[in-house]
Amino acid sequence: MTLLHTIDRAFYAPAPAERVAWLRILIGGYAFVYLCSRFEALTNVVGFRAVEFVPVGPTRLLRAPLPAPWVFGILLVTIALGAAFTVGYRFRWTGPAFAALLLWVTAYRNSWGMKFHVENLMTLHVLLLAGAPAADTLSLDARSRPRADLAEHGRYGWVARAMVLVTVTTYVLAGVAKLKLAGAGWLHGDYLRAEIAHDNLRKLELGSTYSPLGAWLVTHSWPFGPLASLTLMLELGAPLALLGKRAALVWVALAWSFHVGVAALMVIIFPYQLVAIAFLPFFPLERWPLLRALAARLRIPSAQSAPL
Amino acid sequence: MAKDVKNPRRGPSLSAEKAWAYAFGLGVCAAVAAPALSEPRSDSYPLSTYPMFAYERQKTRLCHVDGIDRAGQRTRLPPRLVANDEAMQAARTVRLAVRAGPERVALLCQRVAERLARDAKFDGVVRVRVIEGRFDSLSYFLGSTEPEELVVHHECVVPGRA
Fold this sequence. Notes:
The structure holds 2 protein chains of 2 kinds. Chain A is mainly alpha-helical. Chain A has helices spanning 3-11, 17-37, 39-43, 68-87, 91-109, 120-130, 140-144, 154-182, 190-205, 212-217, 224-236, 245-266, 271-274, 289-298. Chain A has 14 helices and no strands. Mean pLDDT of chain A is 93; it is low at 301-308. Chain B has 4 helices and 4 strands, in the order αββααβαβ. Chain B has a 4-stranded antiparallel beta sheet with strand order 2-1-3-4. In chain B, α2 (87-100) packs across α3. The longest helix of chain B has 18 residues, at 16-33. Mean pLDDT of chain B is 88; it is low at 1-8. At the A-B interface, α1, α5, α6, α8 and α9 of A face α1, β1, α2 and α4 of B.
C-alpha cells in the first residue's frame, strides 16, 4: 500500500449517492432560506455611497457599485437558482450557476468595509457541491432521467471529504491568525476578555443588541485563561476530527459549543454553524432514520444504495 | 462497487471524474488554506484569514451618532438610523464620513436627523451629534462608562424640533 493509495482511500472513499444528495438538499435548502431571510440585509447596501465600496473576491471586477435594480435582480435570480439547486433541477447547469451567484451576492454584501465571516463556509460548501454529482438521486433530475448505477462510489464520496477539509481548515486558520497577531500571549485570556468587552461596548454605544452575560463575565478575569486555551485547542486541533467518527463527533460537539458561547457572550451569530448544517459533511447522514424514511417516502430511485 | 484501485503497486487509477474530484476538491481546499501564508490582517472574502478575535482590544475607538433631548441628556441611536441593522456597518459608515471631512459629516448628520424626525420612538430627541470617543474596554464594564477622549465632529438639529 503506497502513500498515494492511502490518500486515495481517504479522499476518494466510496459513499452512497444519497449522502451527497442529502448534503445538496440540506445545505442548498439552508442557503435558499438564508438568502430569503436576509433579503433586506443583502440589498440595503444600495443605499450606501460609492466611496464606501471596498470590493472583495469576485466583486473586484467592478469599478463602482452596481445600480440598485441589478442588486435586486441578481439576488432574485440567485434565490430562484437556489431553489433549483436544492430540488436538483437541471443541476448540471443550475448547480454551478447558483454557486457562482451565491458567491457574488455574499461577496457584494461583504464589499462595504465589514467582513462578516458568517457566510464563508456556506458559500464554499455550496461551491464544492456544485462541482459534484449531487443530483443523481433524490432530485427532479433523477425523476426524469433515472441513473442506473447508484452504487457506492468515490464519485459520491469525495465532496463530503473536501467539505470536511475546508471546514477544518477555516478553524485552523482562525487559530493561526491568533498566534500570528497575538502570539502565545493569546492563551493568557487577556486578549479574549478585552475582545468580549470591546465587542459589547461597541454594541452598547452603537445602540445594538449586546450580551448582558458577556458584559458581566468581563468583570472577572479568571474564566478567560481556560476559555482562551479551549478556543485555541479547538481551532488548532481541528484536524484531529479527520481521525475517525468518534473524533469527528467530539470535535463537532466542541465546535458547536464554541459557537453557542460566542453567541451567548457577544451576540455574534454564526447561523450556519449554530443550526449544525455546517457540520453535516462529517456524518453519514443518509443512515439517519429520519432521512431514510424521507427518502423512502419520496419514492425516488435509491434502491441501489448500500444496505445499512 | 466500481473498482478504482486496479494495481496496488502502480497506484490508484485515474478516471476523468476522479481527476476532476482531485483537481477541483483539493484545489478548493488549497485555496481556502492559502491565506495561512499571508499577513493575517489582509482579510478577504470568501478566502479569509479569520482574524476576527485575534486583535488587541484594550482600547475601543468609536465613531458614532447619538441624540440629545431637550434636557441635554444623551440617547443612543440604533444603527438602522445610520445605515442598516448591522451595528458594525453603521459604525463603518460614520468612520468613513469622519475621514472624508466636515462636509460628509454634516451630510451624514442631516441624513440621520431627517430619519429621526420620522421616527416617533425618538420624538424627544432634538439634536443629533456625530462623535468619536475612545474608551477603555474593560473599565467601561467596571463602572467607568465615560470615554477617555470625546470629539464632537458635528451637531445638527432634528427638523421640526428646534
